[in-house]
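A.,

Following up on our hallway conversation. Structure tokens first:
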């Protein structure tokens, strides 16, 4: 696969599975503790993320850093939005930083695992796959001086619809986003049953592909309702893509962290220190603050502590951040891409 990951084919799931299987298990024989991590990684310190290689010859110090952000909404918006940070990262590391657009969560994860992606923003749900299977080390989320920027799972319906509670959606057309999405699929499956609605039993789960497509689908009447990330819905309304007054929110969940920003575990420790410094010191210019809902900096987080609720949700619905789970996600995303291309 070329470095520029512009899309998936219907056979991408098989390609991904082969790529995962082809990596040499560096730690297979000498690692005493890896937890849920894949066999090519080790977690001796118990922080749930991959340790840097113990052999300095395996530390990577690329001349160019490849950066990307989770494939949500319009990719061009985020490519431009992160330009100031890319420039700052170049200043701090002394390395050229390039942005490559990815069209699926599976492609983004595979790119970091294979060594072609060095720093990236991963969606909340797929972060677990990135940690366990790609050696991603989350270090920050967007936020302010006081707190990280979170979001809620919200369920939207048309304002003039008769639906008032989740239980009213039994037998209706409800759009989830994608299998790996936290707010778009995993959290609804974990949280809705306590509200009297069981996804997959009380209604057929219809995958839209992305949060924005779920919102637009409800707006057009293709779906009766959709669980989506509150921050995505807010940004779409602020950009005038939809009118917030045309919708009604019938459910709001507790707060979740937004997309994680992570670096590859095997980067040279000196380079990692500079990357961490860049995330710590960078302040968002006004245009970035507008794009990201008032966030003005990267707020420090750890995967072990701040992704605990996300792992709990995944566990409650039987989701595993393993090769089979990622392969299933890749196949579903490939099928969606093929279907969209055919139409």
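Then the amino acids I'd put at each of the 343 positions:
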């Amino acid at each position: 696969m070329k470095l520029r990951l512009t899309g998936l084919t219907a056979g991408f799931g098989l390609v991904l599975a082969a790529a995962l299987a082809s990596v040499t298990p560096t730690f297979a024989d000498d690692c005493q503790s890896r937890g849920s991590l894949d066999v090519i990684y080790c977690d001796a310190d118990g922080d749930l993320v991959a340790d840097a290689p113990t052999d300095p010859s395996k530390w990577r110090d690329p001349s160019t850093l490849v950066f990307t952000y989770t494939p949500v909404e319009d990719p061009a918006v985020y490519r431009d939005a992160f330009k100031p940070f890319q420039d700052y990262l170049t200043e701090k590391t002394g390395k050229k930083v390039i942005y490559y657009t990815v069209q699926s969560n599976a492609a983004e994860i595979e790119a970091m695992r294979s060594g072609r992606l060095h720093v990236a923003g991963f969606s909340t749900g797929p972060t677990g796959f990135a940690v366990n299977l790609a050696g991603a080390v989350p270090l920050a989320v967007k936020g302010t001086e006081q707190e990280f920027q979170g979001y809620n799972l919200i369920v939207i319906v048309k304002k003039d619809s008769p639906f008032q509670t989740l239980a009213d959606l039994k037998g209706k057309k409800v759009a989830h986003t994608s299998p790996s999405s936290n707010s778009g699929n995993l959290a609804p499956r974990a949280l809705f049953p306590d509200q009297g609605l069981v996804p997959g039993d009380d209604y057929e789960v219809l995958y839209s592909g992305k949060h924005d497509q779920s919102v637009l689908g409800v707006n057009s009447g293709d779906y009766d309702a959709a669980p989506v990330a509150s921050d995505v819905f807010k940004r779409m309304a602020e950009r005038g893509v939809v009118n917030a007054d045309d919708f009604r929110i019938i459910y709001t969940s507790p707060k979740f962290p937004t997309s994680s920003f992570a670096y590859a575990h095997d980067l040279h420790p000196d380079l990692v220190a500079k990357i961490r410094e860049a995330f710590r010191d960078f302040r968002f210019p006004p245009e970035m603050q507008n794009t990201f809902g008032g966030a003005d900096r990267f707020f420090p987080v750890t995967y072990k502590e701040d992704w605990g609720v996300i792992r709990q949700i995944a566990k409650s619905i039987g989701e595993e951040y393993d090769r089979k789970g990622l392969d299933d996600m890749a196949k579903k995303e490939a099928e969606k891409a093929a279907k969209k291309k055919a139409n």
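Residues 57 and 305 are 31 Å apart (CA to CA). Curious whether your intuition agrees with the design.

B.
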